[in-house]
Design goal:
The complex is a heterodimer of chains A (532) and B (120). With 532 residues, chain A is of the alpha/beta class. Chain A is 30% helix and 22% strand. Chain B has a five-stranded mixed β-sheet with strand order 2-1-5-3-4. Chain B is globular. Classes of the chains: A alpha/beta (532), B alpha+beta (120). Chain A: It catalyses: 2 reduced [adrenodoxin] + NADP(+) + H(+) = 2 oxidized [adrenodoxin] + NADPH.
Chain lengths: 532, 120
């Protein structure tokens, strides 16, 4: 029962004398009703927390927990892959190595005695969420967004298969989400065998114009030497890094609205336009028009102004066609993926749009004009947003694609209501707020979630005592025992470091930052497990 | 080495007055004094986590103007103000003696008040 947001009335019997005792907590001060007081133990109670997911959200949560609790916490951080760091490893573009510096900080956290990394542990296969919750005082879900928004247009799916998992595309092209393509070139094991063959692709249409779309464009358009010294996956380098490996000559960035609504940011756009040796322009002259509302927004926001200036400048600097071309297709809404007789992608049909301030709060929305174009292409990448996957046993908001929560406390149902918190369960990162923001956004997010855990500390400790007795839940010891019993090959930090050093050494031998392993079996072998 | 006085106001509102050596940047000085200022990209202009707000416009003006690259990253910072800078780009000079800088804290309604979806 809650009296107000910061006071908690708990009723129950005292665990030691079974007298009826009640207490009120107000802003961190606890008032007891009876003579029997709180436990007087000289050993401070330790909070056992388990975090599911080791990307920025997970690690910033570790950071905030250690700062809040000092010695009174132990954190286990899980990942389904043998490798930690989530999208820092599998999402950040290989030519953005500086962005990956944050892994140094995450590594110091992982080697702290209060923290334990457990890689190659899949919640749902190796351990159930209910088991994690029974073993710890609190579980924080931080597993991000591993699915995609769909265009929802005819031709989007391969016509010859019933499930996308069995998809085989003709001609080395096809329709993929940007997440899949980025995972492919970043060596994520799940995307290792995507049937992409750039030697058979001349034109690519990328739906969306955020920074992920620009990352994809750079990988497709850059001269070979840009990515050779990076940690771009070897199988991707064989294609994009070799003059014979890729036949890509043009990339179209297809955006429903105009340059002022584009989600990309100046740094990334400038990089694409000036460092990749491409000729960039809009496909049609009218695609650079902006409305009065747009002009006002540019005046008010430097970021928007910069994006528009960069596109205009590129347009003005046209010197005829170069080896590779980038086309901005503003005001073009994809309505159909066109397929050839063999089922392979032949192009996309787009409807020209006009932008009106008809959205909620006057936001700019694209309205169809009834005029259509066809963009010829063999590969379509959907860069229109990630989406989280539900976890069995936990509520999920299908509309927003997140786990329903209040400031990070998971709710039992989608409707936000304080009385239906799923006690002991928390969420952080993209899974909590949706797939937007940069790495640093997760720091503020983690602070909010950990503030809730901190406010709940007493309730969590008491719940733990009630279930497990005065020692509380077993935490890491219980989890490792369970996983050992099940024969799970847990990759702890020591084993990850073996893989890490192996990749760096292999890279060094080839003049590269790192040569990534891209198959889980091979990763585990390098980690020191015997694999048949 | 000559030092100047800089006061950091942390996320909890607590003040830390430190002696900052000339030539170091404000992110380095914070870390040298165990002040909780995030520096994810370690000073390479690839993030905006070391965002600091000068409490006094006069001191803000004493810092050489930000480059376009810094402004591009600063545009993405949470809680941007007219006296905001990236700590890793502000070099300690004598004219900053007595400057006060604040580390922005999340407001209660971070995801509601004027929330604009950020690019990634």
């Amino acid at each position: 029962m809650r009296l107000a947001s910061r006071s908690v009335l708990t009723l129950g019997s005292c665990s030691r004398c079974t007298a009826g005792v009640y207490s009120i907590e107000w802003n961190g001060i606890r008032l007891w009703s009876a003579a029997c007081g709180p436990a007087t133990s000289s050993v401070p109670e330790k909070l056992h927390v388990c975090i599911v997911g080791s990307g920025p959200a997970g690690f910033y949560t570790v950071d905030r927990l250690l700062k809040r609790y000092g010695d009174r916490v132990h954190v286990s951080i899980l990942d389904r892959l043998p490798t930690p760091f989530g999208l820092v490893r599998s999402g950040v573009a290989p030519d953005h190595q500086d962005t990956k510096n944050v892994t140094n900080q995450f590594s110091s956290l992982a080697t702290d005695p209060r923290v334990s990394f457990l890689g190659n542990v899949l919640v749902g296969r190796d351990v159930d969420i209910s088991e994690l919750r029974a073993l710890h005082h609190a579980v924080v879900l931080a597993y991000g967004a591993e699915s995609d928004r769909r265009l929802g247009i005819p031709g989007e799916d391969d016509p010859t298969t019933s499930t996308s998992a069995l998809r085989w595309s003709r001609g080395g092209g096809g329709v993929f989400s940007a997440r899949e393509f980025v995972w492919w070139y970043n060596g994520h094991p799940d995307a290792r065998h995507l049937p992409i063959d750039l030697s058979k692709v001349r034109s690519v249409a990328i739906c969306g114009i955020g920074n992920v779309a620009l990352d994809c464009a750079r990988v497709l358009l850059s001269p070979p030497d840009r990515f050779t010294p990076t940690d771009l996956a070897a199988h991707a380098l064989r294609q994009s890094g070799s003059p014979l490996g890729s036949a890509v000559r043009e990339v179209h960035l297809v955006a429903r609205r105009g340059p002022v609504q584009a989600a990309c940011t100046p740094k990334e756009l400038k990089e694409l336009l000036t460092e990749c040796g491409v000729s960039a322009r809009t496909a049609a002259p009218d695609q650079l028009t902006v409305s009065e509302a747009d002009a006002a927004e540019m005046k008010a926001t430097r970021l928007k102004r910069r994006v528009y200036e960069l596109v205009s400048k590129a347009q003005q600097q046209q010197q005829g066609r170069s080896r590779r071309d980038l086309f901005f297709q503003f005001y073009r809404n994809p309505v159909e993926v066109l397929r050839g007789p063999d089922g392979g992608v032949a192009g996309i049909r787009v409807e020209r749009t006009v932008v009106r301030p008809d959205g909620p709060g006057g936001t700019a929305v694209a309205v169809g004009s009834g005029v259509y174009d066809t963009i010829e292409c063999q590969l379509v990448l959907k860069s229109i947003g990630y989406k989280s996957l539900p976890l069995h046993g936990v509520a999920f908001d299908n509309r927003r694609g997140v786990i329903p929560n209040l400031e990070g406390r998971v709710l039992k149902q989608v409707r936000a209501c304080v009385s239906t918190c799923d006690e002991g369960l928390y969420v952080v990162g993209w899974l909590k707020r949706g797939p937007t923001g940069i790495i640093g956004t997760n720091l503020v997010d983690a602070e909010e979630t950990v503030a809730c855990v901190a406010a709940d500390t007493d309730a969590l400790l008491r719940a733990g005592e009630k279930t497990h007795g005065s020692a509380g839940p077993p935490g890491l010891a219980g989890l490792t025992a369970l996983l050992r019993q099940r024969g799970v090959r847990v990759v702890d930090w020591r084993r990850w470091r073996l893989l890490d050093e192996h990749e760096v050494a292999a890279g060094r031998a080839a003049g590269r930052v790192r040569e990534k392993e891209t198959e889980v079996k091979e990763m585990l072998r390098v980690c020191g497990f015997s694999m048949e | 080495m000559f030092r100047v006085q800089i006061t950091y106001v942390d996320k909890e509102g607590k003040e830390h007055t430190v002696a900052a050596p000339l030539g170091k940047n404000l992110l380095e000085v914070a870390h040298d004094n165990e002040i909780d200022l995030e520096g994810a990209c370690e000073g390479s202009l690839a993030c905006s986590t070391c965002h600091l707000i000068f409490e006094d416009e006069d001191f803000y003006k004493k810092v050489p103007e930000a480059t376009e690259d810094e402004l591009d990253m600063l545009d993405l910072a949470f809680g941007l103000t007219d006296t905001s800078r990236l700590g890793c780009q502000v070099i300690v000079t004598k004219s900053l003696d007595g400057a006060r800088v604040r580390i922005p804290a999340a407001s209660r309604n971070f995801y509601v008040d004027g929330h604009k979806p950020k690019p990634h």
